[in-house]
Amino acid sequence: MNKKVxxxxxxxxxxxxxxxxxxxxxxxxxxxxxSIIPLLTSFYYSFTEFNPVKxxxxxxxxxxxxxxxxxxxxxxxxxxxxxxxxxxxVNLFIALLLASLLNRSFxxxxxxxxxxxxxxxxxxxxxxxxxxxxxxxxxxxxxxxLGMFGITGPSWLMNPAYTKWALVLMGTWCxxxxxxxxxxxxxxxxxxxxxxxxxxxxxxxQRFFKITLxxxxxxxxxQAILNIINAFQYFTQVYVIINASSGAGSSNAGGGPANxxxxxxxxxxxxxxxxxxxxxxxxxxxxxxxxxxxxxFIMIKVTxxxxxxxxxxx
Amino acid sequence: MKRKLVAGLLAVVLTLGTxxxxxxxxxxxxxxxxxxxxESTDAGTEEAADTAGDTAEAESSSGEREKVVFWYSHxxxxxxxxxxxxxxxxxxxxxxxxxxxxxxxxxxxxxxxAGSEAPDVVEVSNQDIxxxxxxxxxxxxxxxxxADGYDLGSxxxxxxxxxxxxxxxxxxxxxxxxxxxxxxxxDILEEIGYSEPPKTMEELYEMAEKATEVDAxxxxxxxGYPLFPLASARQELIYAFGGRWWSEDGQTLTPDDPLILDSxxxxxxxxxxxxxxxxxxxxxxxxxxxxxxxxxxxxGKQLFRFDGPWLATMAxxxxxxxxxxxxxxxxxxxxxxxxxxxxxxxxSLGIPVVANNKEGAWEFAKFFTNxxxxxxxxxxxxxxxxxxxxxxxxxxxGMPNFEVFVEALKTxxxxxxxxxxxxxxxxxxxxxxxxxVYNGIKTPEEAMAELAxxxxxxx
Lengths: 314, 459
Prior knowledge:
Chain A is an all-alpha fold. Chain A has 13 helices and two strands.
């Protein structure tokens, strides 16, 4: 009897599997057509020289050799790393600061939360165009405000020493999503911890560093690594700035003043669509893929470790 | 059982839906073909372009007028001017019917030229023509002209043909010339004690220093030296000294040309006098506000401006009060013959190798670039001619400032771009190293030596 039931269960299971597979089939076909095949094709193209009008010609490792000799590749990597490791902590700090402030009880808190989140929903291109005007050295608001304090503001988008800092500044405006996640994490911290700390005489600063920060650390680490990975895909803002700044007759394949905001994805795009080196661009994309894969691996490891430590402390 | 059947059916429907979605483009294209003909009269419609090529062959075999599909890269008022010329061609004969479409997307043009849905004629820049010729995508105009007994050399200027030539074969029929010359503010010039624009760069520098004004904080409020637009700083300011980024034959890159250094040294002398950061701040603001009502030239804050004939059209809209003149870009005391040096580019017509109606395309290309209608189109869009007969045409010379620009065309001092594969990357590198110089990060000598090293990697 039991054997019969077991067989029936097995039969249902197989049928369920088939049904499940059939339901998943549209996605599987889509994923194969639009992800797997292009991925494999681009891997093949990375060993060829081709453009949209020429058949691929096998060149072996030439594209990779060129990439590792090309100073602009390293420059674009340096710029991207700057954004990853400078912009990310600044954004996290501001997001946590805002979240802490907005976590307090005050009149109009809901409105304040909405206002601080609002920039995150504005389309990136529109926001960047506004920032270009804000950064104008003569008429822009940033330098006008600095001027009120007797500081002469720089040519933010013209001087290579300041262009990346301008991007960092611009990034702080869009911390709404991170702020919201931090706010959720802060609200998860048990109130009893603070009450106990208050009885023990802990001040605001002590409570923040001894309770708040350790409790939200896993979320912060996760956000940090996610932001770093996003930085490796930094494209829209620099693309808009460069195209809006270059006049008629200028190269649209540039990377800003002295290539100071030439990010790796932008250089990849230029290689493919301005220099028409699709094979080389595919090789660059695969290098980026490897880098992001490593970052993801680290993310998983670090997040797990921080979560375990957090759990252990509790 | 019933549930299983429903589940299976749903899965099949979804799968078919996905597959239909993947492969629907061909059908959709076929279905929009009639719409293509209807929409073709509107400048700015790209949608119809995909299928227009297919219709040409079909209709030509039906005994009606043969269709010729023409893609051009203009919109709005300029697009309307193109449509007028198309209309004039259609009325001038009864064998061909040209269908015009505005297609601005370069990627789309490349894909069409490489596939089977190309137009019969395409209007693009001469650089694009050379790029297409390098890839074997456009027909030899030299061969078509020879077969027709059409003497290109006696009709078009030599530099117009050169700019569309690759390895002694002409691949594009030049339609409009693009050059840059010197606009100057007459009131400022008079204020600093001059009645004539400069004839040499040394004179220009002297005037520039006298015209430049700063406020109490050292911020530049009026700029004398023509450091803006940025593209002119990379090109005309260098060419005026005789400096060239590449050799005459366009095959060798020459960033270490000593005449480039002469230009950069004069440039830096000016920047250092007023402060590199102050100059860059002014240039940055000028760049953000270019071609708007706040444009520094229209606002009377710029003495010299190296720009194209289109600046006059813009001045009429945004700076009607600015009292300006136009003169040839000066040469130097050592090389006064360089007067009027500028980049030289053209808008040209190319005939794709895969075009359906090459004969019709050729007839239209001749009409579009060399007829009474050509003049009308050029005047409507404010562009300069490429044909020698229009150089002396009173209507063309009567256009605002065209006399000076045509005079510059006649000098044939136009600088042609090199026909190397890595040209776009080379331009990008030039801009990077000029930025190092203009921001005071590297000396001109250091920057150009490093650029020369980098240029060795290029093909």
